[in-house]
Amino acid sequence: MNGIVLVVDDSPENLSLVMNILENGGFTTLLSQSAEHALSILLEVDVDLVLLDALMPEIDGFQMCTEMKKMPKYYDIPVIFMTGLSEQKDIVQAFNVGSVDYIIKPIQPAELLARVQTHLKNARTTRAVYRAIDFSGRHFLAMDEHGKILWFTPQVPCMLDYTLAVGSSSLPEDIVRWYQRCVTEPITVEPYYKYTNKNQNFNVNLAYMGQPDAGEFLLRLTIEKDDDKIISLQKRLNLTAREAEVLFWIAKGKTNRDIAEILSISHRTVNKHLEQSYIKIGVENRAAATARVLQALFI
């Protein structure tokens, strides 16, 4: 399967035409005659690409694309407009709201397949790079000089416990104030800032990395760990470094999913470390493990 493509057009004839082209090209297609219905599909299905008509009743394609790009879950899904509108202002508007391409009707099968395949490949490559960066334990956020978000690696919203959207300035006010001073007063401002994630009960260190490209300023985020306590736990209970980290967060009341996000590892890996740790410290459940950790830390 090449991918799942959501086709949104209020014309049944156009939907049928595009579906036949895509399915002959090996794609799975989902069809919708309205933007509202299409957005509900996105909530249920992991779509790889959206083909979107510009002119539709009620919510048009431009509005739908704008809404998609406000949502972190959907902002990196490539959107291709397909429409009879051929004036330059319409094409410019399509790119301004976040589309990656623009096809003018009538649809040419070979052109449609080529554009869909190209943008799917590009999107998958970009996502793979972001996942690789996250997996390496490196987390980044890029903004313009006004604080508008340009891109971020996948774990950043969880680290800040904040809903982020490309194209917006949706960051905690204290971070925005510090960031803007870094941009405007780089010599006088400390390039490091500590942000407290109160819901997850840990600190995030933000480092201003400078301007790697024109109009783009980069921040690196790292979770502040209680290294001394973890090292002590590792030595006293004869654990590996990672096992000690996992048990430390268990003792702080974190779920396995929370720990996976904090340490940038998979949920399955957390479970594996817990199984091994329980055997080493002679306990059978989380409550007993928490008690054992607290005992080891405060003896």
From TrEMBL:
<keyword id="KW-0418">Kinase</keyword>
<dbReference type="InterPro" id="IPR036388">
    <property type="entry name" value="WH-like_DNA-bd_sf"/>
</dbReference>
<keyword id="KW-0808">Transferase</keyword>
<dbReference type="Pfam" id="PF00072">
    <property type="entry name" value="Response_reg"/>
</dbReference>
<dbReference type="InterPro" id="IPR011006">
    <property type="entry name" value="CheY-like_superfamily"/>
</dbReference>
<dbReference type="GO" id="GO:0006355">
    <property type="term" value="P:regulation of DNA-templated transcription"/>
</dbReference>
<feature type="domain" description="Response regulatory">
    <location>
        <begin position="4"/>
        <end position="120"/>
    </location>
</feature>
<dbReference type="GO" id="GO:0000160">
    <property type="term" value="P:phosphorelay signal transduction system"/>
</dbReference>
<dbReference type="InterPro" id="IPR000792">
    <property type="entry name" value="Tscrpt_reg_LuxR_C"/>
</dbReference>
<dbReference type="InterPro" id="IPR050595">
    <property type="entry name" value="Bact_response_regulator"/>
</dbReference>
<keyword id="KW-0597">Phosphoprotein</keyword>
<keyword id="KW-0238">DNA-binding</keyword>
<protein>
    <submittedName>
        <fullName>Histidine kinase</fullName>
        <ecNumber>2.7.13.3</ecNumber>
    </submittedName>
</protein>
<feature type="modified residue" description="4-aspartylphosphate">
    <location>
        <position position="53"/>
    </location>
</feature>
<dbReference type="InterPro" id="IPR001789">
    <property type="entry name" value="Sig_transdc_resp-reg_receiver"/>
</dbReference>
<dbReference type="Pfam" id="PF00196">
    <property type="entry name" value="GerE"/>
</dbReference>
<dbReference type="GO" id="GO:0003677">
    <property type="term" value="F:DNA binding"/>
</dbReference>
<feature type="domain" description="HTH luxR-type">
    <location>
        <begin position="232"/>
        <end position="297"/>
    </location>
</feature>
<dbReference type="InterPro" id="IPR016032">
    <property type="entry name" value="Sig_transdc_resp-reg_C-effctor"/>
</dbReference>
<dbReference type="GO" id="GO:0004673">
    <property type="term" value="F:protein histidine kinase activity"/>
</dbReference>
